[in-house]
Amino acid sequence: MEAAAALHRIAFEDSGEGLSRARTYGLLFYAQGISLATTGKPLFEATFRTTGYGFEIPELDERFGGPFGRWWLVLDGVDPGTLADSQVLHDVLRVFGPLNAQALASAIKSEAPWREARAGRDAMAPMRQADIHDHFAEMLDDGRDVIAELNLAQYPDRPDWERPFRVAVNVKCLAGHPMFSEAESRDLRRKLDLEELPDVWERDDAPGTGGAEGLAAVAVR
User: Fold this and answer.
1) Which of 27, 5, 10 has its CA nearest to residue 73?
2) Which of 14, 18, 35, 168 would suit a FRET pair with 219, their CA atoms being 20 to 30 Å apart?
3) Partners of residue 123 on adjacent β-strands
4) For residues 165, 168, 173 and 177, what is the CA-based torsion angle, rounded to 10 degrees?
5) Torsion angle, CA of 15/162/174/3, rounded to 10 degrees?
6) How far is C-alpha 20 from the chain's CA centre?
7) Where is this region: Disordered (predicted)?
8) CA separation for the pair 13, 10 (Å, rounded)
9) Which residue(s) pair with 127 in the sheet?
10) pLDDT over 60 (residue 210)
11) Which residue in 65, 62, 78, 63 sits closest to 22, CA to CA?
């Protein structure tokens, strides 16, 4: 798959490091979501099939798994084509690239497409492309609305979707997401005069002590 090859090339050119299979999958998920939300088009064609630990992309596993397919993808000789110049891939690596595989998996499992695919369906249910588009578009739209309402500054010299996405993660209380902060979430929601505050804040006011279990039950607004 050209997108995976391009991602690996960009990562190596930027930092000299390789990407594990799990990190590749996580970064491709965010690249697909950002592309769908900002351009209305998928960056590539693939199936995101959910698993208990996150998800997998069977098209990549089957073609590029190799002898060490559990951990690495063998992409030697795959031409990334024009995707090597993809601004979406470059930006996703800047924002999510520093996360390790576990943090990326935690982030994805907090996102609506993963949760909706796992709810009452087959354990290996795919995430629907329409769900990915709708989720990321809503996140960016809601984040931009909050930024405008509260007159928040954008991050300088960063992708223009990063601050809206981070704001939406915190306003919607996506516990377990690496961008989530109890203190930031509480501050934003109080400024917006949102009524339903997570119970965990009442039980323990110390940031970072509530854990995902208490916040995951909060209805996403």
Assistant:
1) 5
2) 35
3) none
4) 0
5) -50
6) 17
7) 201-221
8) 5
9) 48
10) no
11) 65
Q: Which amino acid is at 47?
A: T
Report the distance separating Cα 37 and Cα 110, nearest Å.
Answer: 18
| Two structure tokens written together for 44 | 């590539």
Distance separating alpha carbons of residues 178 and 96, to the nearest angstrom: 9
Listed residue (105, 103, 164, 175) closest to 139, CA to CA: 164
Q: How many of the other CB atoms lie within 10 Å of CB of 9?
A: 16
Contact indicator for 119, 139 with CB cutoff of 8 Å:
no
The dihedral sign for the CA sequence 23, 74, 114, 193: positive
Structure tokens at 41: 């088009």
**For residue 12, pLDDT beyond 50:** yes
Q: Please, is 197 exposed, middle or buried when counting C-beta atoms within 10 Å of its C-beta (0-12, 13-18, 19+)?
A: middle
The residue-averaged pLDDT of 6-19 equals 78
- Partnered with residue 49 across adjacent β-strands are 56, 126
Helices 182-191/129-150 angle, 10° precision: 70
